[in-house]
Amino acid sequence: MPAMVVRSTSEERREQVIAAAVKEFAANGFHATSTGAIAKRAGISQPYIYALFPNKHELFLAVHRHVVDRIRRAFLEAARGGATPEERLASMGQAYGELLAHRDEILVQMQAHAAAGDPTLREPVRQEFLRLREDVRRMSGAPPEQVTDFLAMGMLLNVAAALELPDECLPMSGEAAA
Description:
Blueprint: H1 10-32, H2 35-42, H3 46-52, H4 56-79, H5 85-99, H6 103-115, H7 119-140, H8 144-162
Helix pairs in contact: 1-2, 1-4, 1-6, 4-5, 4-6, 4-7, 5-8, 6-8, 7-8
């Protein structure tokens, strides 16, 4: 009896491409990353990328959304059970601290901000940031100024993670933030 070949669904292939693209975009940024390199890493042909995504811009935005959605899910889970906005923000900050171990995803965030010089990327990246900010406000119940401080700490932690700074450079006074 011949062996049965199991084929991936287009959604599974899409996830494979996104995982490969996270690595490539993290390492090289939007402009220096080729769809050929992403295809090679994903183990597919380059034309198949265009069957899944209309163009490199849309693939990059899908990768950025993937990373931000992962943060959003971690925040939502962490915010459950906190009695006060401060407790919810502290839990969300701890959850973000765990995400910092995924350096490629941190670099994708930074690459997305850097790529916002491209007008076709700026507005979608901007909207995703504003949406995350509103989600943090809603999930935590914190006032806007606390949310801004929380996100500012997260940006500083992103830089520290991206640069692999020593612990003494980290702004950790007992509470993590995103």
